[in-house]
Design a protein that fits this description.
heterodimer, A: 432 residues, alpha/beta, Urease, subunit C, domain 1, 6-stranded mixed sheet, globular, B: 460 residues, 11 helices, Metallo-dep_Hydrolase (chain B), signal (chain B), Metal_Hydrolase (chain B), Metal-dep_hydrolase_composite (chain B)
């Protein structure tokens, strides 16, 4: 057997991790290595695009790229010939209500919001991996999503969470993934008050913690302190202030975006902007402050006075200024699969294909703290094999894997179509 | 207060005093002006234009390679190979595609314009289950920046409809997508009016919450039937008046009723039905409703379940206007299939349309049609670009009653065409030039032909 191209020690580590697992006897199929060969591999790393490449997957992760030889324990039926077609990381959707809403207008099928929701609201408890939206969304090559709460009256809408689209009951990958806030024009009241509320929350907590620390230092000289347990929202604020969790803010007007940049710089936050219709006006400042933005590439109408400069050219303009762009379908969650068409339209309007691919993979993974979004050793093996250009209308997903497991794209919609295309003497209800 | 003695029905009537002096004489005949807000549309300045060597999708199911199209005097003057025309501006169409101008049968541009602020919400007269007396054209704000965005997407004609809160929402109007200060300046000359009807969840929710009819689907049907029964009486009363007047009698004209005027227009075959109706069983009932009251049930819009009754639609000559993939936002949109349009299209005597109902997707109806084309091909349908373009051109023109004038690239038709930089069913396709009645209304590379709404002018 020839050696892997990748450093041996690393490979050995992964192999031993697999073999050494105590659960080997009942190991799932994914524990066995899988090889995808002859792929036009879009790594979304410095390696760029590798022609005629091989990827080895084991234990849900990418074990090796272009090894000098295939693993010894690889069985013939675990080799997929990609036939020169394009293999990309699975796409990452964001800021939708996947698994929280089945039918938007049916209240009983909606779990994304609650009037009293605040920053402690964790909707991941309600996530339904059996939602009919999930297999349908896979038609767009989407393997993961950041799901966001719609919240309630408070500007703090709650905590986003990350899921994979496997449809399995353990598909919540990471819950309590930061805090989601909305800022902007509203029919009653002033955005100034909301910005002030956000600012004061952080400032007050920061001061309180500093005070406690000082007190603690003083007290420890004399006696055992009687510290109170921090409240749930205080712990969340602490995580934001420590930069351990992102603060996601939906805002659009350029002046609001600048206020938020100032907030980030003052409190050293990990800030991610969402919406950001007028971002091109302040692209330089966003780039300097290293604030990634989540935008809808098709948004180009002045739908409000907060978004007079929305444009199809926005993704390209932001990327050119050095802003990390994450594309997202906004509005109803039912058509997440269109994320790839967002990318295509962004390319038609000036974004490079490589930037567009990063905007639905690596950039999202980085902003949300997910170990996915790239084809690189050690990353989650979320992969999609496409019949052609992933962004084209004429292309379809041929095969896809989530954490190394092959998943299909067959949905309830397909079953309905087939029923009504099947000739039958009995009523259609008998066709299954 | 002084009693008013003159009859109040003199709307649109001129009464001469001399006519009243002679008892033997008939009163001036009462006639209703059916076109009180007439089109003042004029094509933009134009130049005879010859587009050479383009790939032409005619809209009638044909794809013509390396073909020339001559636009002259507002019409498609010639179509073929090796055309030359003295004095014509020649455009190189090699590698480019030419299609008919895109037509959207379902738009709310101008009545729900951008910016979407409260004072702009003029598309849904949610005050009674039957508001057939309202006309969308009286709400249109021609400065809506959405018209420009749709033009960039190749839309040359669009029907503006009132919303779907009511059983009868009012009249729609068909517009040319040209910049204009007035609605009349956009109005498609001689296009028939449409009447918006709505099935299902919307009317029953809006009025059910107010504890009035309809609060159920059976209430919806009762509401339609009551209205058509009244309209039938109204029509009969006017016909009797006409008959008696023609016979030399001096009958009193029926009292004018704006609501029933619109419904009578449908019964007279002058106004076309555009029915927001998602579900198969409801569409079937609306077809029977039309038969009960002797009118044609027209085009079903949103028609998410049209695939379940594609044969019935074809047999009855109904068009169905559909999205490729919108679904799940309410129960009546739950049974979406991406091949809906293709399945409807495959039926005999079909009329499948892709519509937008959106200020965003109206800009990409070519992509919307493309999604259907490719998903259907993957699932065994024998379809091509030449077929798909008809879903956004000729079929909507049929639905709007204007297919004798526009909707296809055929000699003699209005020169409404779009020149695309590539196959229009690619995600990367962009309209380079758009023509309405032979006049260039948009050029991707020439700022002179890029209109800007008053609203966006000077916004920093």
């Amino acid at each position: 057997m020839r050696l892997f191209k990748t450093p041996l020690s690393r490979v050995a580590l992964f192999l031993s991790a697999g073999i050494g697992a105590a659960t080997l006897a009942i190991a799932p199929v994914s524990a066995k290595p899988l090889a995808i060969t002859h792929a036009n591999l879009h790594t979304v790393t410095e390696q760029g695009v590798l022609a005629d490449a091989t990827v080895i997957i084991e234990d849900g992760k990418i074990l090796a790229i272009n090894p000098q030889a295939l693993p010894e324990n690889l069985s013939a039926d675990r080799i997929i010939d990609a036939g020169g077609k394009t293999l990309t990381p699975g796409f990452i959707a964001s800021f939708n209500q996947l698994g929280l809403v089945e039918v938007s207008a049916v209240g009983e099928s909606r779990d994304s919001g609650e009037k009293k929701a605040d920053m402690t609201f964790d909707p991941s408890l309600a996530f339904n991996p059996r939602s009919s939206l999930i297999p349908y969304s896979r038609k767009g090559g989407i393997t993961r999503s950041l799901v966001a709460p719609s919240g309630g009256d408070s500007i703090f809408k709650g905590q986003p969470f990350a899921v994979d689209l496997s449809g399995e009951f353990d598909s919540v990958v990471k819950s309590s993934l930061g805090v989601f806030v909305t800022i902007g024009g509203k029919a009653k009241g002033s955005r100034a008050f909301d910005l002030q509320t956000l600012w004061h929350k952080l400032e007050d907590r920061q001061k309180a913690v500093a005070k406690q620390k000082a007190k603690k230092a003083e007290k420890s000289k004399k006696e055992k302190n009687d510290d109170k347990e921090p409240k749930r929202d205080e712990l969340i604020l602490d995580a934001l202030l420590a930069g351990e969790q992102p603060l996601f803010v939906y805002a659009n007007r350029a002046s609001d975006l600048l206020q938020l940049v100032k907030l980030k710089q003052t409190f050293k936050l990990d800030l991610v902007l969402v919406g950001a219709a007028d971002a091109p006006l302040v692209a330089k400042q966003l780039a300097q402050a290293e604030v990634p933005v989540v935008i809808n590439a098709l948004r180009n109408l002045p739908e409000s006075f907060d978004s007079l400069h929305a444009s199809l050219a926005t993704p390209a303009a932001l990327a050119a200024a050095g802003v990390k762009v994450i594309l997202s379908t906004s509005g109803d969650t039912h058509n997440l699969y269109q994320l790839r068409y967002q990318a295509g339209n962004a390319v038609a309007n000036g974004l490079s294909p490589a930037q567009a691919l990063a905007s639905v993979t690596a950039n999202a993974a980085d902003a949300f703290g997910l170990d996915a979004g790239r084809i690189a050793v050690g990353q989650a093996a979320d992969l999609v094999l496409w019949s052609g250009d992933p962004f084209e209308l004429s292309t379809q997903v041929e095969k896809m894997w989530i954490s190394g497991e092959e998943v299909g794209t067959s949905s309830r919609q397909d079953a309905l179509r087939d029923r009504y295309l099947t000739k039958s003497e009995l009523p259609k209800a008998y066709v299954k | 207060m002084r009693k008013i003695t003159l009859p109040l029905l003199a709307v649109g009537v001129s009464v001469t005093l001399t006519a009243c002096l002679d008892a033997q004489q008939q009163d001036m005949k009462v006639t209703i002006n059916k076109n009180p807000y007439p089109s003042s549309y004029q094509p933009l300045p134009q130049q005879t234009t010859l587009i050479k060597n383009a790939t032409v999708l005619t809209g009638t199911g044909e794809k013509l390679e390396n073909t020339d199209v001559l636009l002259q005097d507002g019409k498609i003057a010639r179509l073929g190979k090796g055309i030359s025309a003295a004095g014509a501006l020649e455009l190189d169409g090699a590698g480019k595609w030419l299609t008919p101008g895109i037509i959207d049968v379902h738009s709310h541009l101008g009545v729900y314009p951008s910016p979407s602020v409260g004072s702009h919400q003029d598309g849904n007269e949610m005050t009674a289950p039957n508001t057939s007396e309202v006309w969308a054209e009286h709400s249109v704000w021609p400065q809506d920046p959405g018209f420009e965005a749709a033009r960039i997407g190749g839309v040359t004609t669009l029907q503006i409809l009132p919303g779907s809160a009511n059983l009868f929402g009012g009249r729609g109007v068909t517009l040319r997508n040209v910049p204009s200060i007035t609605m009349q300046g956009m109005k498609f000359p001689d296009a028939p009016y449409g009447l918006k009807m709505a099935c299902g969840e919307n009317p029953k929710r809006v009025y059910g919450e107010r504890k009035e009819l309809p609060s159920t689907r059976m209430g919806n049907m009762a509401g339609y039937r009551s209205a058509w029964a009244k309209a039938t009486e109204y029509k009969r009363a006017w016909e009797k008046y006409e008959r008696d007047y023609a016979a030399g009698k001096n009958p009193q004209a029926p009292e004018r009723d704006l609501t029933l005027d619109t419904l009578k227009g449908v019964l007279d075959g002058e106004i076309l039905i555009h029915n927001h109706c998602y579900k198969a069983e409801e569409m079937a009932m609306m077809i029977d409703l039309g038969k009960e009251f002797n009118y044609h049930s027209g085009t079903f819009h949103h028609a998410v379940e049209a695939y379940k009754i594609s044969d019935l639609l074809g047999d009855n000559g109904n068009c169905a206007a559909m999205w490729p993939d919108w679904w799940g936002f309410k129960m009546e949109a739950y049974d979406m299939v991406q091949e809906n349009v293709a399945i409807v299209d495959a039926a005999k005597n079909s009329c499948a349309i892709v519509h937008s109902d959106s200020d965003s997707t109206i800009q990409r109806l070519n992509q919307e049609a493309g999604k259907i084309l490719y998903r259907a091909k993957e699932n065994g349908f024998d379809l091509s670009e030449a077929d798909a373009v008809g879903w956004i051109t000729l079929n909507p023109a049929k639905s709007l009653g204007i297919s004798d004038k526009t909707g296809s690239v055929e000699v003699g038709k209005n020169a409404d065409v779009v020149l695309w930089n590539r196959n229009p069913f690619s995600v990367y396709a962009q309209a380079e030039q758009v023509f309405v009645d032979g006049a260039k209304v948009y050029d991707r590379f020439d700022d002179k032909y890029q209109a800007k709404s008053d609203f966006l002018l000077g916004q920093k």
